[in-house]
């Protein structure tokens, strides 16, 4: 299952793709990590998909990642008289906490946290921003507002508050039950929705611990303001452009995406770019040119992974969509300008020995024309540090941990291989050369660069670099 590209593909599983035959076709078309969206489906549904993916993993003999995406809090209006009300720009309207009649002066908003946090001048965006209102006044039980952008407000439509930090946990009771269930199944990553501030990540970490990697979904403006602190606490980030594109102006999203990708590279944390990447392929066999360009832009930015949502979950062409994304990635990475663009956004090297060793390994391997860098890693940290450099050659990560191998399915340029623990330095070199040969990364007479942490098995100790020749196993 070796991929001849560096960026990874995450595909959401849904009714269009949940059967074992389609999952297998998706994997062969290019999926590296499957996303289970816990906003939809039952626990039994997700358990069946999880079991099918693990059976597929055993069949193909290659590690497959599984990402659990939590629903998070949903802020919605309540029930309206007649099911909907029409509002026009300049019109005065009122939201009420309780006792609503459901007309324009008593729109039910059953979320006390909004009434506690909102201030005059704040905006409420309803139905993904199709209706926009600005707060003009408030009491304990009502919020007066003026319509900025008119339209229809109908039952249970979502509400976004881009200028307001709500005193609400990102983990609902449903999310907590879902996390416990996902960890029991054995998911590799948990994606946390509705992250507003660093303490939200701390709260989720208490639940997840080290049983899975924790991904913070960046979809709130307040999260952008605290991105560095969030990155220190999370294991990875998802640029969730759906809600983010509602809460900040559309024209700012591309620049923010680049900032987040660069920050993740600097922090050596994987980053997924998500939402509407090939959206037209939900109902059409080919994407628009703009969508193909959108995927390519994420690859030029240096994203670790790009994600499909409805395209693979409910679309008519899930396998074709994955194959298309695979082709776009490979074509982009093969373009003559790709290397120069990716290197132009190269983050500065942190002044620590582990990062310096990893960066030196990438530079050395390129200088001597090595076909691959071999990284021995128990936690995935050594491979992540090398991937941060975005070297022009594959990273073969050898690990004794099945869980680590699965998590590395999100890492840029990394091919994970399971192998037992090594007990000595010489055994490490011999194992590295053997696996590189068996997995097709190196041929006799090739030089490979081997990176590891000594003593073996201690996470985060990237401190050793060696060059070895495949033919006679001589050190250089």
Radius of gyration from CA coordinates = 24 Å
Major β-sheet profile: 8 strands, parallel, barrel
Secondary-structure class: alpha/beta
As laid out across the biggest beta sheet, the strand order is 1-2-3-12-13-14-15-16
Give the amount of beta strand, in percent. 15-25%
Shape: elongated
Low-confidence stretches: none
SS summary, helix count: 17
- Percent of residues in helices comes to 25-40%
Pathway: Carbohydrate degradation; glycolysis; pyruvate from D-glyceraldehyde 3-phosphate: step 5/5
GO molecular function: ATP binding; kinase activity; magnesium ion binding; potassium ion binding; pyruvate kinase activity
Catalytic activity: pyruvate + ATP = phosphoenolpyruvate + ADP + H(+)
Keywords: ATP-binding, Glycolysis, Kinase, Magnesium, Metal-binding, Nucleotide-binding, Pyruvate, Transferase
Structure report:
This is Pyruvate kinase. It catalyses: pyruvate + ATP = phosphoenolpyruvate + ADP + H(+). Its cofactor is K(+). Residues 355-467 form the Pyruvate kinase C-terminal domain. Keywords: ATP-binding, Glycolysis, Kinase, Magnesium, Metal-binding, Nucleotide-binding, Pyruvate, Transferase. The protein has 476 residues and is of the alpha/beta class. It has helices at 20-29, 43-60, 112-117, 173-185, 198-208, 221-225, 227-233, 241-247, 253-267, 289-301, 310-313, 318-334, 338-344, 353-368, 381-388, 402-407, 425-438; strands at 8-13, 33-37, 65-69, 84-87, 92-96, 107-108, 123-126, 131-138, 142-149, 151-154, 159-160, 189-192, 213-218, 236-240, 271-274, 305-308, 373-376, 395-399, 414-418, 447-452, 464-469. The strands form four sheets. An eight-stranded parallel barrel has the order 1-2-3-12-13-14-15-16, surrounded by seven helices. Strands 6-5-9-8-7-11 form a six-stranded mixed beta sheet, covered by helices on one side. Strands 19-18-17-20-21 form a five-stranded mixed beta sheet, sandwiched between helices. α5 runs parallel beside α7. The chain is elongated. The two termini are 31 Å apart. The relative contact order is 0.11.
């Amino acid at each position: 299952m070796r991929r001849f590209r560096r960026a990874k593909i995450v595909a959401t599983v849904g009714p269009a793709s949940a059967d074992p035959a389609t999952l297998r076709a998706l994997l062969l078309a290019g999926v590296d990590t499957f996303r289970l969206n816990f906003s939809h489906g039952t626990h039994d549904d997700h358990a069946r998909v999880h079991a099918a993916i693990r059976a597929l993993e055993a069949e193909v003999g290659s590690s497959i990642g599984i990402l659990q995406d939590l629903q998070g809090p949903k802020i919605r209006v309540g029930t309206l008289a007649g099911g909907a009300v029409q509002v026009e720009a300049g019109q005065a309207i009122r939201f009420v906490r309780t006792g609503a009649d459901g007309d324009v002066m008593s729109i039910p908003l059953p979320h006390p946290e909004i009434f506690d946090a909102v201030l005059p001048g704040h905006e409420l965006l309803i139905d993904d921003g199709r209706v926009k209102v600005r707060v003009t006044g408030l009491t304990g039980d009502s919020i007066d507002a003026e319509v900025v952008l008119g339209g229809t407000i109908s039952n249970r439509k979502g509400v976004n508050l881009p200028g307001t930090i709500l005193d609400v946990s990102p983990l609902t009771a449903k999310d907590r039950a879902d996390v416990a269930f996902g960890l029991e199944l054995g998911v590799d990553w948990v994606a946390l929705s509705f992250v507003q501030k660093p303490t939200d990540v701390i709260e989720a970490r208490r639940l997840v611990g080290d049983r899975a990697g924790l991904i913070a979904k960046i979809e709130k403006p307040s999260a952008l303001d605290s991105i560095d602190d969030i990155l220190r606490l999370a294991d990875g980030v998802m640029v969730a452009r759906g809600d983010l594109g509602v809460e900040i102006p559309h024209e700012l999203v591309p620049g923010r995406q680049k900032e987040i990708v660069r920050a993740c590279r600097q922090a050596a944390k994987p980053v997924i770019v998500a939402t509407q990447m090939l959206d037209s392929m939900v109902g059409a066999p080919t994407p628009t040119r703009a969508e193909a360009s959108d995927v390519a832009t994420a690859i030029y930015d240096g994203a670790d992974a790009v994600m499909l949502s409805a395209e693979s979950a409910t679309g008519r062409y899930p396998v074709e969509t994955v194959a298309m994304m695979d082709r776009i990635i490979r074509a982009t990475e093969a373009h003559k300008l790709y290397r120069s663009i990716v290197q132009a956004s190269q983050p500065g090297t942190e002044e620590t020995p582990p990062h310096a060793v990893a960066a030196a390994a990438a530079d050395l391997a390129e200088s001597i024309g090595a076909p691959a860098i071999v990284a021995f890693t128990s936690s995935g940290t050594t491979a992540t540090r090398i991937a941060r450099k975005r070297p022009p050659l594959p990273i073969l990560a050898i690990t004794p941990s099945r869980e680590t191998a699965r998590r590395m399915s999100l890492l840029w340029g990394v091919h994970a291989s399971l192998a037992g623990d090594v007990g000595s330095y010489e055994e490490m070199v011999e194992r590295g050369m053997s696996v590189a040969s068996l997995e097709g990364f190196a041929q006799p007479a090739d030089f490979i660069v081997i990176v590891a942490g000594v003593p073996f098995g201690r996470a985060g100790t990237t401190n050793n670099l060696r060059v070895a020749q495949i033919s006679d196993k001589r050190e250089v």
